[in-house]
Each structure stands twice: as C-alpha cells, then as structure tokens.
Amino acid sequence: MEAEAEAEVGLLLQEARESIEAARSYRRELEQRLRGLHQARKQIRESATLTRDVLEQHFNDLKGTLKKLLDERLISLLQEVDAIEQESIKPLDECQKLIEHGVSTAEDLLREGESAVHGDVGQQNEKLCSFTKKALHIQLDSLPEVPSLVDVPCLSAQLDDCLLTILKNQIFRHGTVASRPPVQLEEFVEKPGGILVRWCKFRVCARGDGRQEWSPWSVPQIGRTTLVPHEWTTGLEGYSLSSRRNIALRNDSQSCGVLYSKAPTYFCGQTLTFRIETVGQPDRRDSLGVCVEQQNGYDSLQRDKAVCISTNGAVFVNGKEMTNQLPAVTSGSTVTFDMEVVQLGPSSNEGGNFKLRVTISSNNREVVFDWVLDQCCVSLYFGCSFSYPGWKVLVF
Fold first, then answer.
1. CA-CA distance, 185 to 209, in Å (whole number)?
2. Which of 29, 69, 208, 288 lies 20 to 30 A from 260 at CA?
3. Is residue 302 classed as helix, strand or coil in its secondary structure?
4. C-alpha of 15 from chain center
5. How far apart are CA 326 and CA 345, in angstroms?
6. Is 75 exposed, middle or buried (0-12, 13-18, 19+ CB in 10 A)?
7. How far apart are CA 255 and CA 236, in angstroms?
8. Which region holds residue 267: left if phi is over 0, alpha if psi is between -120 and 50, else beta?
C-alpha cells in the first residue's frame, strides 16, 4: 500500500511538474505576444507619423514646383505678347512718322499759300509762282496707305479650361496610402557580382463581395470554429507524451515515424504553434507541419498532401522543397502555421479544386505560398517527426 501511495504521489508530482512547465510556456507565449502587440502598435504609430510627414512634404514640394512652373509659363507668354506687340507696332510707328512729316509739310505749304494769296500785290505774282511750283513738287494728291484693322494683329490669350479639369482629376488620383508595401524586402545578402534579395509578398484575402484585397495579416474568425485542444496521438513508439498529451519527447527508441495529432483539430483561420523545448541532433528528414490525412509508413511529413518545415529551416510542400527557407530551429524557437481558404472551386491554371494560402513563421521570418489540393479540406492533422532523440516539442 505504501509503495502504491508513493507511486501515485510520484505520478501526481510528474503531472504537476508538466503542468507548471506548460504554464511557464503559456506565460512566455503570452508575454511574447504582448511584446509583439507593443511592436505592432509602435510600428503603426511611427509609420503613420512618417507617412504624414512624407505626404505633407511631397505636396508642399508639388505646390512650390507647380507655382514655379506656372510663373515660368506666365513669363514666357508675356514675353511672347511683348515680342508680337513690338513687331506689329514698328511699321505703324514708321507710317506715323511719314504722316506727321506730311502734315508738317502741308501746314508749311498752307501758310505759304495763304500768304501768297493775301499778301502785298506788288509781290503777289512772284509768291504765287513759287507756291505753285512747291505744291506741284510735294504731290498733294499722293497719300500714304494706312493698314486697316483687319490687317493688323489683334492679340488675345487662348486658355483652355480643361487644364483645370485634367489637373483636378490627376491630383485627386495622385498618391496612395497602403497599410504595407506590396512587397516587403526582408533580407539583402551580398554575392559576387550582385545582391541576393529575399522578399515576402502580401497575402490576398477574400472579401464578402467576391473580390480580393491585399492584407498584411489574417484575422482569425473567432466563434466560427469550435476550438479543440491540440493533442498528440498515443501508441507510437519513439515518442513519450506528457499527461496532457500536448508535449512530445523523442525518446531513445530506434523506432522512427511520424507522430500525428489525435484528430484533425487544426482549422483554417486558427494559428497552430509548435514550441521547441529541447533539441537533439538535427536531420534533414525532421519535420513539423500539417497534413490532410494520417499516412503510416512514412518517417517524415516531407510527402504528398502535407506542408512542413525541417529543423534546418527548409520548407516542403507536397514533398518538394521550396526555394524560400526559414532560419534553423533551435531551443526556444516557435514555429507557427496560419492558413486561409482562397479558392473553393476549380482552377483552370492550377488544375486543383481547393487552394489554401499558407503562412509559416519562425524566428521573426515567414514564408507565404499557395497550397493546391484536389479536395476540400478545412480541418487538418498536425504532426512531427525527429530522427534522433532529445527533441521535445510543445503544441498549442
């Protein structure tokens, strides 16, 4: 009886230790999420302030440039008016000088003629003869031509009112504000003769009206899915489970295989999290991920109808390794899986009937890709496989 009591106490202590460890992990995750929220809020505030400054500076520069351009155009047009005015007035000035000279000559001749007609009789014949000769020489019947108004320029300004409409439309369409750029550059690596750039595209979220819009993150639909505790299945050699079956330890058994969840408890819209508590010797076949169905006989999730990440950071989709790679998994690493349904019907381009947008995050890095399946599947199994002992993983 005493031995049984001690054994029971030992089991209770073991369960209590596991519960304490689970509580610690849970607290760490909550604290990490609080830090994440703080950074997210800080990023929004700082980027909003920077964006306001950029917009104000840009439009102030535009106003200054636009005023400068308008002033320059006005000066140019005024100079054209001056040039046309001077060129058009010049022949009129010459004609005016000729007419004024004729008027002066006519006045002199008129005075001389009146003097000859009304002057002294003794000298009248001589004065009349001189006046007549002078009048004949001046050619009083010849008049200079003055251009008619239709033959001289009449300046005007042609100002197209549609410019304001064009400017108004262009200004109203000028500039956009986005929550994030369409492509986020994540890493620059210097290479001989160039630079390797790694980037992450936005995810596309389906809207209620059937259209799609860019979104930087997914919002879980709380209440639409019944949340089921994530548990590992039992009975697989090679792995030891905690009493709550949410912690799996790869033991010293030579048996190797994939440890699956008890049921397909991961639903699209949720976040599935693996936390690495302890590490063992890594192997390229190691895997953490989700799959459509349990398939025995495999030693890894690097197979068809599954997506996973290896402990070296390689990402596999249906057994094929992606070019994008995440950082290697270490003790304390957290790996998360998020999925969204982006296509329910047939796809002529992909040849599949069902498409999930998958986001795998690890160590502040993430990869996003589309997983095309030949069947509708909104609940998935999760699983893990480790070739060597020492690996301990918590799932929640």
1. 31
2. 29
3. coil
4. 50
5. 31
6. exposed
7. 9
8. beta
User: Based on the number of CB atoms within 10 Å of its own CB, is 352 exposed (0-12), middle (13-18) or buried (19 or more)?
Assistant: middle
The pLDDT tens digits of the residues spanning 124-179 come to: 677 777 777 777 777 666 777 888 888 888 988 888 878 888 888 888 888 888 77
- What is the distance between the alpha carbons of residues 224 and 245, in angstroms, rounded to a whole number? 25
Dihedral pair phi/psi, residue 368, rounded to 5°: -130, 130
What's the token pair of residue 295?
A: 């398939």
As a whole number of angstroms, the distance between CA 326 and CA 364 comes to: 9
Q: What SS3 class is residue 351?
A: coil
State how far the Cα of 327 lies from the Cα of 310, in Å rounded to an integer. Answer: 10
- Bridge partners of 309? 288, 315
Q: What is the CA radius of gyration of the chain?
A: 46
Contacts of 135 (CB under 8 A, 6+ apart): 109, 113
Percent of the chain surpassing pLDDT 90? 33
- The CA distance from 309 to 326, in Å, is 8
Nearest in space to 384 (alpha carbons), one of 281, 268, 226, 275? 275
Residue 303 token pair: 């197979």
Provide the edge-to-edge strand list for the sheet that holds 354-362: 239-241, 247-250, 392-395, 271-278, 334-343, 354-362, 365-373
Pull the structure tokens for residue 70: 């308008």
Query: Residue 10 — φ and ψ, nearest 5°?
Result: -60, -40
**What is the enclosing helix (H) or strand (E) of 346?**
none
Closest by alpha carbon to 247, among 270, 267, 276?
Answer: 276
Q: 268-284, pLDDT tens digit by residue?
A: 888 999 999 999 999 99
Q: Who's near 96: CB < 8 A, 6+ residues apart?
A: none
Structure tokens at 319: 């057994």
- Which of 75-79, 225-229, 240-244 tops mean pLDDT? 75-79
- Let me know how long the chain is: 396
CB 368 within 8 A of CB 203: yes
